[in-house]
Design brief:
Bound molecules: flavin mononucleotide
Strand content: 5-15%
CATH topology of the largest domain: NADH Oxidase
CATH class of the largest domain: Alpha Beta
Helix content: 40-55%
CATH architecture of the largest domain: 3-Layer(aba) Sandwich
CATH superfamily of the largest domain: NADH Oxidase
Number of helices: 10
Amino acid sequence: MFNPYEDIPDDREICKVADQLWGINGRSQMSLNLFDIIKGRRSVKEYSSREVSNDVLLRVLEAGRWAPSAHNAQPWRFIVIRDSALKQKLAENMANRWNEDMSKNGIPKEHRESLIKNSVERIGKAPVTIIACLTMEGMDKYPDDRRNNIEYAMAVQSVAASIQNMLLAAHSEGLGSCWLCAPLFCPDIVRKTLKIPEHVHPQALITLGYPAIKLNAPTRKPLEEIAYQNYWGYST
Ligand SMILES: Cc1cc2nc3c(=O)[nH]c(=O)nc-3n(C[C@H](O)[C@H](O)[C@H](O)COP(=O)(O)O)c2cc1C
């Protein structure tokens, strides 16, 4: 199983010292350098059967709660699912819609079935699933679509920030996670399965659990390709 201590040996001593100084035994990964947490987080697709404690889960949610948000509206709502039968039902319902969509694209049945089987297994076998939702309740309202659309974009960005906070907190706790976009493609199905009101928008499904395997980091674009100085495209 992936162990952040093993993965980043230089930080092991720092963690021990932090444990002694601040008495945060049992959550010492929190003292890993922030940059190590950011770079070490991976999208984990296979989890061990080890349970995720409520304490750990609450810290992950707490990290989501402290994300920045437009107007400090905190437009995120999270549904935590541990119940295996409900997780399975949600995964299957979403997969059925995905199957219909893929069929419209002419994807052969065999290929569709294999993708769907994988997807249902991935969600069903993850010890915890969190559905991140968006509510516009606390956002500003305007008489025109232009500004209302901007408010919606701000709410989406705020929910995304809270999701990223949770992924980082999860990693710092030794958990793996994966951000899945599937609910965006079938919000009606997710709403119906989880009794979510019509005005709430399911944005993402996050799987959480202890990683079964260690993953290598996918590559990132070089800095000069994505960050410019003063003007678009100027890197020098
Ligand atoms: C908005 C968003 C949607 C994503 N949706 C999926 C998804 O549906 N399935 C999946 O396996 N990974 C999904 N991912 C994870 C990305 O594939 C992953 O972050 C990327 O490949 C980089 O890998 P890393 O997270 O391990 O660094 C999503 C990530 C984001 C930010």
